[in-house]
């Protein structure tokens, strides 16, 4: 299967992965969350080449994560802001940041501290069950087939589980 | 900056992005969470070419996310299991899945339903403040410099914010 077909898999990880499909995209999103809107800032803070920044911004606009708006007419210049869909990625990025802080901090402590403005404490982002508020872990979650599943994939998986 | 230098940035998103640096890695991790351990299953369920599966499994072993163990000696065959570091990614993947379910389900409903076995309900994974348990959103979080920050980057960012 070609990489550009990943997004056609009936799977929300695959569809998300087709949007966030490389490290530069994650860095561009990080900068958008920090408030960068202009090409030069995205370039300076990600360390990416102009062609990379340009390509990733376009992809994120096409995916509906960023929206582009004209801020100067002569010459035309655009800025890029997170859409609602893009802002909804912020909690996901915070959970990922905590994983990085926990496992990849190189002993130096977290580079960045996120404060929850409502309570004034460090956010310590935690993924919990929306029903009972207990933390979700690999020990307490079971996956099953949903409405949007692809029947062929379901059959193939069931067969593999039987063979284990 | 070269892509392989992303992981040297003093930033937990960059360090995480250097591990989860393409869509195939996310699909391999999805399969590992679902219980795949063997090369053939990773290949069948991600749709990736053997060389891609082999490369990504090696990278994830090198990063400490998967561990490799011999399950057959003649010929030598290996299986791949999530380490504790790898299992800690599961909540992050669940939060990402919810984002995909919300914004990329193509109207067909979620392909997969995760059940929280402790309470018996759908997980509805929610990223909350570990201190007060309120949901974290782009509206209620403020970032500031942490112990592990790089002083040059901090100065550069402060300058950019002044110019906005």
List the helices and strands and how they pair.
The structure is a homodimer of 164-residue chains.
Chain A: H1 12-19, H2 23-34, H3 39-46, H4 50-63, E1 66-72, E2 77-82, H5 84-87, H6 90-103, E3 112-116, E4 126-128, E5 141-145, H7 151-163
Antiparallel strand pairs in A: 1-2
Helix pairs in contact in A: 2-3
Describe the structure using short key phrases.
homodimer, 164 residues, alpha+beta, Arc Repressor Mutant, subunit A, 2 domains, two-stranded antiparallel ribbon, 45% helix, globular
Question: Can you walk through the features of this model?
Answer:
2 copies of one chain form a homodimer. Chain A has 164 residues and is of the alpha+beta class. The first copy, chain A, is built from 7 helices and 5 strands, in the order ααααββααβββα. In chain A, a hairpin with a 4-residue loop joins strand 1 and strand 2. The two termini of chain A are 25 Å apart. The model of chain A has no long low-confidence stretch (mean pLDDT 90). Chains A and B meet through helix 1, helix 2, helix 3, helix 6 and strand 3 of A and helix 1, helix 2, helix 3, helix 6 and strand 3 of B. Strand 3 (112-116) of chain A pairs antiparallel with strand 5 of chain B, so a sheet runs across the interface.
* End-to-end C-alpha gap of chain A: 25 Å
Radius of gyration of chain A: 19 Å
CATH class bucket of the largest domain in chain A = Mainly Alpha
Give the tally of β-strands of chain A: 5
How much of the sequence lies in strands of chain A comes to 15-25%
Average predicted confidence as pLDDT of chain A: 90
Secondary structure tally, helices of chain A: 7
